[in-house]
Specification:
Immunoglobulin-like, mainly beta, globular, Collagenase (Catalytic Domain), six-stranded mixed β-sheet
Length: 682
Amino acid sequence: MKKITYFLFIALGLSNLAISQEKVTDEGFLFGKRRAVLQNEVIRCATTEYEEYLKLKDPKRLSDSEFEKWLKPVIIKEISEKKTSTSLQRTSAVITIPVVVHIIHNGDNIGIDENIFDQQVASQIRVLNEDFRRRSGTPGFNSNPVGADIEIEFALAKRDPQGILSNGINRVNLGEVSWSTTDIDDIVKPQTIWNPDKYLNIWVVNFTRANLLGYAQFPSNSSLPGLSQNSSVANTDGVVLGYKFFGSRAYFPNGTYGSPYDGGRTASHEVGHWLGLRHIWGDGGCDVDDFCADTPNAGQENEGCPVNIDSCPDSPGLDMVENYMDYTNDGCMNIFTQDQKSRIISIMNNSPRRASLKTSDALTPGTVFANDGAIRISNLNLTTCNNSFAPTIEITNKGNTALTRASIRFAIDNTSFQTANFTGNIAPNATQLITLSTLTTTAGNHSFNVTLETVNNTTDQKNSDNSAASNFKISKSFAGTTVTYRLQRDNFGSETTWKLTTAAGVVLYEGGPYMDNPGTTANPNPALPEPIILNFELANNACYIFTIEDSESDGLCCDYGSGSYSLNATNGELIVSGGTSFDKETTTFSIGTLGVNDITEPEGIVVYPNPTSDRITIKLSKPEDTPESYTIINTAGQIIETKELGLENDLQISVSHLSEGLYFLKLSKKGTPSKTIQFIKK
């Protein structure tokens, strides 16, 4: 819902008026050009802007008019070669296009954020086939007389560019949370593309501009002698889609989607562009053509699910809002027309990197090796506010002989590697879950890395899928049991809600929504409301989750007042703060428990050897730093032992009786702050 700014007019007996005011919630760059976005606006398709960008990069690339000048006689020739009007809409055979889906992620587990499940990919291929085949009994069917079965199907590739067996899904960890459109073109595509003469490349990404749904590269014209080739670098050819707008919620509900664009039609739209279709309004007014006579003229794009729209009353027919090349919601789209089909088939028969797909071998199953294993991270098994976990991995036997042995190397942050050896029997095409030994680390952001070193006591014959990584975060622990919350609302408090819960979800404190104070004509910039300051009394040695939400997704700052929020521990240490554009922010923290994040790495004090199996020695650079006592604490905050120190020999501490794991040695001396050092008992 749009924010409403209220203007009070008291003159000439006028009553109060409420005027809706659109506001800019985002301003950034789209293919190098600044683009402002209004509240609740999505960029449904950026193909037009992308073509302008490609033209700037390559002046030899044909303009729209030049491309259409080439394509028009091609279409006429294709039609003239059909023997009858009945066969006019038939191709010689159904064309199946091999697809590779590049899932670009930053180390998340499969199924988390942009690293979507395989099933979400499969649901998208299903939607493409239903839409392009006008399949009866599916959302892709229509009874419109001009509706067409395009006679094109899509299938995930069965071999990679090296000829090795593939499922057509290429997961690539490029280490970035999100990607700008220019970086996608300059970095992502060149590093990951499969030969576009053999594959339709689809990239699924997390756009930096989260309101962008997708875009495609338009086809090139023929390179036949005598024609001025529509220059276009091959290493960017394909379709790019936001991960929330890829796949069908109806076919795979457990995916990650953004309503109302959760039916897979963003891909149908963008693949339409990739096959040469233009928007039904021709990216202009009523006098601009999309070069398909059976799509009535439209004056502009349509959104939502409108009915009986006639944006060009001087031209016959209502707007074809159900056409895949409009901007309506996914659930309202269901038609490609006969003229759109003629255009697509002409492109498939004459355009470089489209015509070659018909003879691609990418759907022929690739080579299978005798000894070929693949590894992925199934679950890190992290629990809230716990810095220890035992990851579960999945080994798949992609070879044609039983996988009976495997060597697995793993670590946190690529340091202190451990090795696990698997023995068993994994049949070809089967998988097995393996839980590794417990790992412990410090608070903060980390990466878990795992590699399949050998299979069946030999080198894996295909190592491209032998490594996996997953990013994770360990929550920090804070001293004291009182947390201070400060909320400075903006002028639209009705959008703000927050709550503090236990790790189990029990609500302890909550607030909002609040009153609005948008101002008047006489005072358009009213003072912000007084800040809300609350003290949360929390139990010791427990874990908590703080969540703040803004229903308009613009946060607390800055267009409508410089609002903000913060949480501080008893000693004033900042737990979290924020305020700029967000729809929901969540912070997990614990109270009172001594954790590895409390370690100060005191200067001049060293504990060695570390790790140790027997004893540790405390080495001091200054005699005056000698502690009076020490305490050993485990990762759950439990005191294992405490001892007074008096003799130099006491600086050697036996730990042979401790179980394996991470511990904390707390050194204390009256009049000085205590110092804590971590050590590992192996």
